[in-house]
Design a protein that fits this description.
alpha+beta, six-stranded antiparallel β-sheet, four-stranded antiparallel β-sheet, 19 strands, globular
């Protein structure tokens, strides 16, 4: 009987100890859960890592129409000259009259050449035939063109919106709504999961890819006065010295005129070399392939700078004529850098500068 009572007392004591431990452990558990909740809250709202939920996120993006105006005359004149040459025209000249008008003078050409000119002008939103009256250019020795900046800007904004949407798709995000809130500003509502900082950076990156011949490479910057005006420009490239780990600069004196641009790209993808190092593989369209073949064939043993938004990515030596329309951008520091560059080039360059003005 006494043993039974003793066992009963021990059981009660054990049960009381269990209850006491539970009471003491409960505040600690609640504290841990609260701490975890706070950490999750700050992580989700961190400026560098933002997860957009079902309600989405809104960005207000502004197009820089004024900067577009400043470069449009030079750009549209250069494009017109390149397209006329590609169409086989030789005896012609383009003469700017003022900031809104230019004249195209042609020699003795046939109906086929006039049809090519008409096709090129019709495809350009910013060029309108001012004379001959009525817009018929057949037989004319001089064609006066009006540069319609407003149409050019609208076309550039429309193309930029398409590119921005494509870049958003590359991040596996989704555009819930997009609307103009002024003539040069749009509001986009987006939902998805992404790194906020990289997301905004890639949306606003101009992405202008150019191929320019190198005239000289130096380790010190050249004074601007030593460069030939409108013929040469100085571009820099930063790299890390593999021996010392220190960052250094190379300065390239390149020809101002771009021989080829990203407008002629058909695709840009990340690939891997024999040592598993990432690089960006470029494929040109048919027009770009012909230009690239001519460029490489005429400039063997010269450096060709591959430039993105005014910065040299790489400047390899041309070893031979390249006929297959393929090129590579190496010296990628990481897979992430290669993917970023491929996304920019694959979606195309923004024809008009943009900036995020409200988040």
């Amino acid at each position: 009987m006494e043993k039974a009572e003793e066992i009963s007392r021990k059981s009660q004591t054990i049960e009381q100890n269990k209850q006491e431990k539970k009471r003491k452990g409960l505040p600690i558990l609640l504290l841990v859960l609260a701490g975890a909740a706070i950490c999750i809250h700050f992580w989700l709202n961190s400026p560098s890592v933002l997860l957009a939920h079902d309600v989405g996120m809104e960005l207000v993006i502004k197009f820089d129409a004024e900067q577009f105006r400043q470069t449009y005359l030079e750009e549209i004149t250069g494009n017109l000259m390149s397209e006329l040459m590609e169409a086989g025209l030789i005896d012609f000249s383009i003469i700017p009259i003022d900031s809104e008008n230019l004249t195209v003078k042609v020699g003795e050409i046939g109906d086929e050449e006039y049809s090519a000119i008409d096709r090129i002008l019709s495809a350009s939103a910013g060029l309108e035939v001012k004379s001959p009256a009525g817009g018929s250019i057949k037989g004319a020795g001089e064609i006066t063109l009006f540069i319609n900046y407003e149409k050019g800007i609208q076309e550039a904004m429309d193309r930029s919106i398409t590119i921005i949407k494509n870049r958003i798709d590359e991040f596996s995000a989704e555009v819930l709504s997009l609307k103009f809130i002024s003539s040069d500003t749009i509001k986009i509502r987006i939902v998805g999961k992404y790194d906020y900082g990289k997301f905004c950076d890639i949306l606003c990156k101009r992405g202008l890819l150019e191929f320019k011949l190198v005239k000289d490479v130096r380790q010190k910057a050249t004074p601007p006065n030593d460069l030939r005006h409108n013929e040469e420009e100085l571009l820099g490239r930063q790299f890390t010295d593999p021996r010392t780990g220190r960052k250094r600069m190379y300065y390239y004196i390149v020809e101002s005129k771009a021989l080829l641009t990203g407008d002629f790209l058909e695709d840009a993808r990340v690939a891997f070399g024999s040592l598993k190092y990432p690089y960006v593989h470029l494929t040109f369209n048919s027009r770009g392939s012909k230009r690239f073949e001519t460029i490489t064939g005429e400039n063997i043993n010269r450096n060709l700078a591959i430039v993105l938004d005014g910065k040299v990515l790489t400047a390899p030596i041309i070893k031979q004529r390249i006929r297959d329309g393929q090129a590579v951008i190496e010296s990628m520091r990481s897979l992430e850098e290669a993917q970023y560059l491929a996304t920019i080039l694959h979606t195309g360059a923004l024809p008009i500068p943009v900036s995020i003005v409200e988040e």
